[in-house]
Amino acid sequence: MEQPEGFEDPKNPNKVCKLLKSIYGLKQASRSWNLHFDERIKEFGFTKSEFEPCVYTKFSGSVVTFLVLYVDDILLIGNDVPTLQSVKSWLSKCFQMKDLGEAAYILGIKIYRNRSKWLIGLSQSTYIDKILKRFRMDESKKGFIPMQHGIVLSKSQCPVSSKDQDRMKSVPYASAIGSIMYAMLCTRPDVAYSYLRRTKDMFLVFGGSEDEINVTGYSDASFQTDRDDFRSQSGYVFTLNGGAISWKSSKQDTIADSTTEAEYIAASDAAKEFVWLRNFLSDLRVGASVSRPIDIFCDNSGAVAQAKEPREHHKSRHVLRKYHLIREIIERGDVRICKIPTEENVADPLTKPLARVKHEAHANSTGMQYLEAIPHSLNYNSLKAKKTLPSLPLPLVGDHSLKQQIVVFLIIPGGLAARSQIVSVAVYPLLAVQSVIRKGVAREKGKGKEKIVRDFDGGTYEDLLMMKREGKE
Description:
This protein is of the alpha+beta class. It is built from twelve helices and 17 strands. Strand 1 (47-48) and strand 2 (55-60) form a beta hairpin.
């Protein structure tokens, strides 16, 4: 930063002005602003989260208020409108601010709400359109998957000749990757330009029922997929009531000499992430389920055994000590690690390219939906009595041109004091539905949920056909 003209002292030409407070443009400005905001908002009774410093909470009896800060953008969430108004009044007294009303966009993310269905959706379609135009991909061919199955990249594919290297200097590759990563970090764990163009209108959807908060984790690894240094790829995803809230795909720090070791490292990373996630959710007081152990699903029996029942074996003696932290996390009751078939592991797309059918099924399992595919709220008991379902607009998943399709319903049967609800409705290609059904049955086993499947014909729902669950109707 340079001193403005007109502040020179002819008698002391080597002296400069001393700043009495932070001003815009200093590298310390953002930190100074954050400290000032923190001081003022705490005066109003807010408490900073120990686990996420840009989240503040205020609890007063049954009234709950959350404040989320991103530099100078503020998002207020609460269950009492007068309290929210009082917070805004306080902020307007402390700072010059503009009230934009009910949140529709935040940081380029579109917010969809349907209170009657208990749903929230997040989409970055506008941002994706912007980066497509910036990198001249807005007229590109639309892709169905982020990356072709079987493709392996390595440094040996980089330009070798000076001519090719000079040509690549004009390609904004790093800028493109950075732009894609913002979408990936916010709402899209599945990215590539051609794929983003086809799927830019998808929402990351949460909710769909009044059930308490339920967190589930998945971890996976692909063995020595980096052809340059032979390191494996880890991936994990955590879902909250069906929508992804935390995910990561990264190359492992050390070389694994077996698939079991690679999967064990990935599961350890997932377990550590959940410790933070559990602490953060508990700090927000948003649900009782985080006080119980959550399931982390892994598709490798050896890794599950190593985590649950530690044993001395010559093939695993060399594993770095830091990865054994998962054993302590399991022992103290934070998580349970469970075996799951590979085709049902939702974290699979984070470690390798998949064929289209598998990729779309996993994307749907993490809450990625088109707006028109958001579930309808129906009374299952009345439908069962009538034996028919009304005609409804059908949400399509996959190739819409396929004629043979199946409608899949996920039902929560009501108890003595509750109605049963259809919480998920989707139309899948016939080729994909078998894996979808298997996944649904496996994941919902023992949780009081059922699957209902019926052939789709001409845009209407016909007689209901109930699948048997654990040998019972």
